[in-house]
């Protein structure tokens, strides 16, 4: 054991001397080929960007730093992370409690309850998204950093040691040959140095091949991360689509409440160049005012008395299926084309839609207005 310790100490000292002399330009250094250097640079870049993407995704899914630290500790202790109430669910709880105290039958109380229900649905959707994204995206990135990358790093350190040993052997052989030129007594020393160099070269070449294979495996890592990225986008798309549907349903329900103010006020000067669905209604042709048409929420729309404006109409493509809530609305099917126009005093989130001999109100957010 003592001999082994002494031998290890000697090897470590030799490597330290070689490394120091290289830094000061006093020793030659074996350079890796350009392809190998490119593999090393790509591996380092992959590791660095994977860490950054992982950390920022964790911030996206859990903005609270204290909660992130808590979850990290649970994972390190190999314990299940406790379920946490989302911000949306907490907001829903407060709104429901406020409605109960302020009067659940009042317009404000009823609205609070409806919004609370939607916020609870948003919170549940967020919880599902966080869970799915963690499994399909964060976990594979962590597995790479804590598994494959540690293996690569270990083999790279071993390759560095083999290179230092090789260059130290080259330096010893060079010194032995220089001494041999001065005295014939150094023949054995040269033979020994050459033998050590052959062994060191063999070990270096073997380790270089092992490391090269691991570095080339980074291509497979990219393929795996690409698949995980697609899964992340899919889960994020599902989450935002659920949120969009929940809020559309909420807006629709609130619009039927008496005494509500959802969308009843048009902007004073809407941006004419805007192409967003919510402002496109401001640029629609407007028909002359219908005498029997009351303000939104006070009377039903008299569809028989509504006609397309003389200034023209626009075509619109339906983005999503829409089920009419009552006889004043027009049911829609995704991808169909309909004719649309606006009425004075209408909620800017709605248009009049016509398809054949059928007409009715349609939500702007379900449409793509065509030029």
UniProtKB/TrEMBL annotation:
> Coiled-coil annotation: which residues?
176-210
Q: Which gene encodes it?
A: SH3GLB2
According to its UniProt record, where is this protein mainly located? cytoplasm
Q: What is an annotated GO biological process for this record, any one?
A: membrane organization
Give residue ranges for domain BAR: 21-263
User: How is this protein organized at the quaternary level?
Assistant: Homodimer, and heterodimer with SH3GLB1.
Keywords in alphabetical order: Coiled coil, Cytoplasm, SH3 domain
Q: What is this protein's name?
A: Endophilin-B2
Q: Which CDD domains does the protein's record reference?
A: BAR_Endophilin_B2, SH3_Endophilin_B2
Q: Which family does it belong to?
A: Belongs to the endophilin family.
Tell me where in or outside the cell this protein is found: Cytoplasm
Give a GO cellular-component term: membrane
Record-linked InterPro entries: AH/BAR_dom_sf (IPR027267), BAR_dom (IPR004148), Endophilin_B2_SH3 (IPR035640), Endophilin_SH3RF (IPR050384), SH3-like_dom_sf (IPR036028), SH3_domain (IPR001452)
Residues of the SH3 domain: 311-371
């Amino acid at each position: 054991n003592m001999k082994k310790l002494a031998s290890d100490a000697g090897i470590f000292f030799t490597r330290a001397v070689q490394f120091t002399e290289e830094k000061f330009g006093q020793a030659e250094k074996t350079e890796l080929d350009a392809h190998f250097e490119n593999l090393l640079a790509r591996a380092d870049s992959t590791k660095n960007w994977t860490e950054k993407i992982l950390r920022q995704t964790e911030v996206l899914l859990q903005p609270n730093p204290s909660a992130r630290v808590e979850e990290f500790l649970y994972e390190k202790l190999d314990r299940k992370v406790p379920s946490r109430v989302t911000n949306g669910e907490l907001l829903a709880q407060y709104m429901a409690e406020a409605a109960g105290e302020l009067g659940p039958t009042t317009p404000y109380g009823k609205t609070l309850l409806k919004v609370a229900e939607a916020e609870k649905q948003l919170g549940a959707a967020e919880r599902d998204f966080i869970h799915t994204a963690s499994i399909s995206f964060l976990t594979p990135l962590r597995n790479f950093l804590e598994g494959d990358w540690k293996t690569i790093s270990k083999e790279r350190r071993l390759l560095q040691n083999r290179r230092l040993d090789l260059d130290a052997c080259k330096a010893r052989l060079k010194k032995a040959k220089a001494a041999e030129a001065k005295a014939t007594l150094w023949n054995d020393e040269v033979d020994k140095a050459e033998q050590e160099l052959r062994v060191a070269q063999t070990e270096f070449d073997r380790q270089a091949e092992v490391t090269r294979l691991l570095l080339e495996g980074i291509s497979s890592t990219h393929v795996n991360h690409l698949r995980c990225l697609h899964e992340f986008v899919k889960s994020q798309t599902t989450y935002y689509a659920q949120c969009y549907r929940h809020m559309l349903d909420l807006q629709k329900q609130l619009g039927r409440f008496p005494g509500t103010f959802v969308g009843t006020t048009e902007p004073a000067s809407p941006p004419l160049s805007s192409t967003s669905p919510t402002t496109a209604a401001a640029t629609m042709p407007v028909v002359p005012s219908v005498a029997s048409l009351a303000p939104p929420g006070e009377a039903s729309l008299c569809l028989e008395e509504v006609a397309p404006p003389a200034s023209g109409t626009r075509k619109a493509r339906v983005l999503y299926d829409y089920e009419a809530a009552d006889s004043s609305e027009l049911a829609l099917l995704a991808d169909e084309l309909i004719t649309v126009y606006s009425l004075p005093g209408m909620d800017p989130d709605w248009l009049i839609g016509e398809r054949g001999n059928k007409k009715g109100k349609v939500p702007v957010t379900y449409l793509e207005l065509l030029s």
